[in-house]
Specification:
The structure is a homodimer.
Chain A: H1 3-9, E1 12-16, E2 28-32, E3 35-39, E4 55-58, H2 61-65, E5 70-74, H3 80-83, H4 86-92, E6 97-99, H5 101-113, E7 122-124, E8 130-133, E9 136-142, E10 151-157, E11 160-164, H6 182-190, E12 193-199, H7 213-225, E13 230-233, H8 239-251, E14 255-258, H9 261-272, H10 286-290, E15 297-301, H11 311-316, E16 330-333, H12 342-354, E17 358-360, H13 375-385, E18 389-393, H14 397-409, E19 424-428, E20 433-438, E21 443-447, E22 450-453, H15 457-468, E23 470-478, E24 483-493, H16 498-521, H17 526-545, E25 550-557
Parallel strand pairs in A: 3-5, 5-6, 6-7, 11-12, 12-18, 13-15, 13-16, 14-15, 16-17, 23-25
Antiparallel strand pairs in A: 1-2, 1-19, 2-3, 4-21, 8-9, 9-10, 10-11, 19-20, 21-22, 23-24
């Protein structure tokens, strides 16, 4: 048996790590032999039941434990949910990062802010170019998505090509950047695709996505008829949208004001990379705009998701430093609302209307198209690649399920179309597919310098603090003489009005008296006393208030 | 001047109280002369930033302050957001309640549960019947909504009729109950409508709503092709939906299992009132269903909004006592997702799909129609009533704005089409409309026996507890000798892992030492010591963790 044959016998291993409801979205581990590569390293934004959490990152213990085998981090595109965890990853293992142009610059900014840039090895890759990661050849290919320089990734293994689409849609004539490169994908697929991983976000939606150009008509129409200022809100990374708005500014003799740190930075970066074509003199500052008639101004800012610190939300609360909403302002939300943000978005729209503005969303006009492929485009990619195995990625479970079923309709063998959950280790050979193991996966909550896994009780504690509030019962204890010194003190937060607390807590102290006497008279253990205080106070307060605050006894030795 | 003329000079006063984002939704106060009537007394469900809150009710201080003039509570229909606050209202003032059939029975249940039934004066009213409230004549008229016996209300005043539509749509042939009675509304309007208040929930949506009958085709189609059990989830009060499902059960030779306390109670009530026509023997228990083939069973339950304690959510977590989800179950969500519930609904769908079920929502099939009128129906009511004044009710600000603009398009004078916010006192005469005052309005948060207004710090405290956690610093102090006795004790919740807390808090105690020495050596005031502890500990912990927990000093005199 030759070495090549022996290598041929090795299985490919696939391990999705991290995602929130969405599986394999933020980090996918691909292993062949001694080589591990990581596709994307993203963050998720906390949900409402994760109070105070800044971001959620994948659990990377597996990578840390196998650090000597990790050859590279391969980035598909520059969205936060694909690059946001790169600093956390590089904090634990030093590994080269490969990414297309826009993404590598965003990673660079991120590492600079984290003070990790000096030690990082960052490599910019171009579509069609090959890099080597251990014994694996890796190649990027152009796709279209809602940020420039989005790519899919193809990895050459002895079993055949492993193709990962990244987040994508098919667009033959996008507003910025290159069209989806179907020829390159076809060429890659010619040698036989062993495994396809493909974006499932819109796997339940029939038809095909529209080009971002479709938004042009919608936005141009609204801007043409706007009587005063126009304020367009979108994602900071939506460069194509900024291009449309800049084009509209030029067409309708308006000047463009871009507001918000991230949008200003991304605009600058995209201009440097040649993605944005904005003539000199078109962009002005908010201060300069003040001296122009309102119908000569377009403002572009963030806040399409109702984010509290965004430009639009500040305007809606009349708290923006540079822009005050006026009667004849037209505000265009050029984005879809991400599930979970509906109430925040709704609130800001109501506030803006109350300030007199007209607010247009993509329910009233064509102000947004998505960056994800629908079923017809997913079929196209399945048909072009004809993979032996299919693993849907990027989507909630039901979307993955729909995509896996679609792959079967397109000819993938049912046993080869496999829905994974985070932590599953899938082993693929040319003969068989099997989930052989479960690694530690799941979410790590980040708050300040704190990191907690899901079992970590901090978030659980916060949820119950929020629901019921807390009562602490502090006692000074003379251990030697088994004596309570002074009066117990009860302090609460999030439980009752200060005004009601005094008499309630006085009654509670009375209720506690027999327990304290038992401590002095009987031979109660220390922890028995604490348990008794907790139970007695808890029961009494529940009886009085019909609620169940957390009761925390605190004893001080005096 | 005759008495009648003098009365003619009095203005009508209108005061919306309570709503959450939605104005005038839960309670509208109408005053004429010495008479006050209250239209609806509903609750709102807490939003995500109101942790632990059971429900939100309108601030009723104005009614309590004017109790001797309040003649009646007039209920339009039996939904929680229109009757849920009746017990809270009757707790503060004893006033007769008038409501149509289904609503009065639901109010009765509610008062019985609250132990308030014995003292309550409940009156069932029929459409077309007149009751007298002080000097005012009040008449109910049939409308269609997503609960049987929904009505609008017309109040006869010397200035003309005051018409309140309640929540409504136009349906000429509803599944249950009477069609919207346009003849009665036309007759009422013949005398001249002084003021119209009309449902604005769908005032941004063009066209007309569909009849609930339209859902019949959708549900029948899905049930016809279902290979196994069918589980339909909707609101407990959606009697028309239960009728459709019962009809489908009969048509396809299935038996019907109704699960969930509120749905069972409402089904029983609706059968007693003759709203539901279900043949004997069609309904069986979950236990009886176990002995039938799966394709002979339909289950109807709650949980269309992802409510944690609902039937469907328990099934999705495999925690339902009577139903375990199986491979060939078809689950139909026969409802729209209420804004704010998207994530919960999504999670439960993913869980159900993961258990092997097929889940159909109204995105895939016609499983739901709304109970609210769209613009074409709103025009019809405006055209039929031709009011002098128009006040949009039931909707977020932008919907009210859209409805007010629609009324102007339909011929109401612009200055007579008035958007109010809760607490505004609008005075209307035949000559003029003016907001003359602001009363205390807004939300009261209810948790157990606790009631807090928005300024109440309990909810604010909970939010910060949830975001940052809490650290208490307990000290035993010998006041007379200005001496700290024993060691300070630090206890935290929702802040750091227990494992990390020990060394962090030891360092914090070291940091605190100089402050405690100052207390002993200098002439520090009591509150100065507490402030210093708070500042020192807060600053130190923020430096170490990059977070800002609440720091609460607790001092015990020993």
């Amino acid at each position: 048996m030759t070495t090549a044959d022996a290598r041929n016998q090795l299985p490919l291993r696939l391990l999705p790590l991290g995602g929130l409801g969405e599986i394999g979205k933020n980090m996918m581990v691909v292993e062949y032999g001694e080589d591990i590569v990581v596709i994307d390293a993203g963050v998720l934004f906390p949900e409402v039941d994760m109070p105070g959490i800044d971001v959620v990152i994948p659990n990377m213990d597996y990578l840390a434990d196998n650090a000597e085998r990790v050859r590279a981090v391969l980035i598909t595109h520059g969205h936060e949910d694909h690059i946001g965890a790169v600093p956390h990853l590089l904090n634990r293992l030093n590994v080269p990062v490969y990414a297309p142009r826009m993404a590598i610059e965003l990673v660079r900014q991120k590492l600079r802010n984290a003070g990790l840039l000096a030690d990082a090895e960052l490599n910019r890759v171009a579509p069609g170019e090959k890099i080597r990661a251990g014994d694996l050849d890796v190649e990027w290919f152009d796709v279209t998505h809602s940020i420039p320089d989005a790519c899919g990734i193809a990895i050459d293994t002895p079993l055949g090509k492993v193709v990962h689409t990244g987040d994508f849609k098919i667009d033959h004539d996008p507003m910025v950047g290159e069209p989806s490169d179907l020829r390159q994908l076809a060429r890659i697929s010619n040698d036989g695709v062993f495994l396809l991983m493909s974006d499932s976000t819109y796997a339940e939606e029939e038809g095909a996505s529209e080009s971002d150009r479709a938004v042009t008509d919608g936005l141009f129409g609204l801007i043409a008829e706007a009587p005063g200022r126009v304020i367009v809100s979108s994602f900071a990374s939506q460069i194509a949208r900024i291009q449309i708005v800049a084009d509209a500014a030029e067409a309708f003799d308006r000047k463009l004001v871009v507001l918000g740190r991230s949008m200003v930075e991304n605009t600058k970066l995209a201009r440097e990379l040649g993605h944005l074509r904005i003539p000199d003199g078109l962009m002005i500052s908010a201060a300069e705009a003040e001296s122009l008639p309102e119908r000569r101004v377009i403002v572009m800012t963030t806040g399409s998701q109702g984010e509290p610190s965004s430009g639009l939300v500040r305007m809606s609360r009349d708290q923006h430093r540079e822009i005050s909403i006026r009667e004849d302002d037209t505000i265009i939300l050029s984005a879809n609302t991400i599930p979970g943000n509906e109430v925040a978005v709704n609130d800001s729209i109501n506030d803006l209307v109350q300030l007199g503005a007209r607010v247009v969303t993509n329910r009233q006009a064509n102000t947004h198209v998505s960056g994800h492929a629908r079923r017809e485009e997913l079929r196209l990619v399945l048909n072009l690649t004809r993979p032996q195995y299919f693993v849907p990625v990027h989507g909630e479970f039901r979307m993955l399920r729909a995509h896996a079923d679609l792959a079967v309709d397109q000819g993938v063998a049912p046993e080869n179309s496999i829905v994974l959950t985070d932590g599953d280790v899938l082993e693929l050979t040319s003969q068989s597919a099997e989930i052989v193991d479960r690694e530690v996966a799941g979410h790590i909550f980040v708050h300040g310098l704190g990191l907690w896994d899901e079992a970590g009780n901090v978030v659980v504690e916060r949820r119950s603090l929020a629901r019921e509030g807390i009562v602490t019962v502090s006692l000074a204890i003379d251990r030697d003489n088994r004596r309570i010194v002074g009066e117990p003190r009860l302090v609460s937060m999030g439980f009752v009005h200060a005004a009601d607390a005094e008499s309630l807590f006085e009654d509670t102290r009375d209720e506690l008296q027999p327990v304290l006497e038992r401590f002095s008279n009987e031979n109660l253990e220390w922890n028995e006393l604490e348990d008794l205080i907790r139970a007695t106070v808890g029961r009494y307060l529940t009886r009085r208030t019909k609620r169940r605050p957390l009761v925390i006894p605190v004893t001080i030795d005096v």
